[in-house]
């Protein structure tokens, strides 16, 4: 199952040997493998410079509940749903700790050809669904909801929290997670954190995430807008610098200098919302047209 660490398959889209359906996850399975899931994700936290300690999360099958230490976090009859809750609570806490040492943007981030792509945009702009489609087309997954960038090297880190897929996108995933080559899929419990629009948690399998410790220079930034249509355009460097500064979270004394350097190394583009396949084709064409990494 997803909680076991397995060697990547030889083919990019071949199902992993550890594939199993989260729909069949039992309470004994969850209690047994929660520490193994924690070991995998904490390796990425350690690589980012965080000290994590022992797993603070436990499950009590008799209460059908997830606990953080002695505090009950959430109660649900679905073990896989509690795994989704555990991922959201733990990795969100860790990302917030990274605000002190890294630049963090509200974005999805992916890797292609040893360089990072950052999809920036407000909620509802389609970052997660577009990231999912780009992974289908061969990109590797770094993080959802956050792009985590080292301020000194301007390189993006992998931090594989589950992709949150909303109702309008969930039809893009197979009903049975065992048939999906890239993700194990769980459903968020009803009424969790008022996230009724967040239907699925898509756990990336090891072969679609770079190993802990790898870093990737950011070559491409795409600004997504929730407005349907519009003409895709190249974003001038001065405008990109302003928009990055307004949306960044990081160590304040270094922010402006690092963003100025960031805008010199990356290419910037903006697009509105189109049909998902068309947006994916446009972004892949943008990546192909700027492989030399020259600035705007």
Q: What count of helical segments does DSSP give?
A: 7
Q: In this structure, how is the largest beta sheet organized? A: 8 strands, mixed
Number of strand elements: 14
Summarize the helix and strand pattern as letters.
HEEEHEEHEEEEHEEEEHHEH
Tell me the CATH topology of the domain at 102-160 and 209-296.
Phosphoenolpyruvate Carboxykinase, domain 3
CATH class of the domain at 102-160 and 209-296: Alpha Beta
What characteristic shape results from the CA principal axes? Answer: globular
Classify the beta-strand content into a percent band.
25-35%
Residue runs with pLDDT of under 50 for 5 or more positions: 1-20, 174-178
Name the quaternary structure: single chain
Q: Structural class of the helix and strand makeup?
A: alpha+beta
Alpha-carbon distance between the two ends? 45 Å
CA gyration radius, whole angstroms: 19 Å
Average pLDDT taken over every residue? 83
CATH architecture type of the domain at 102-160 and 209-296: Alpha-Beta Complex
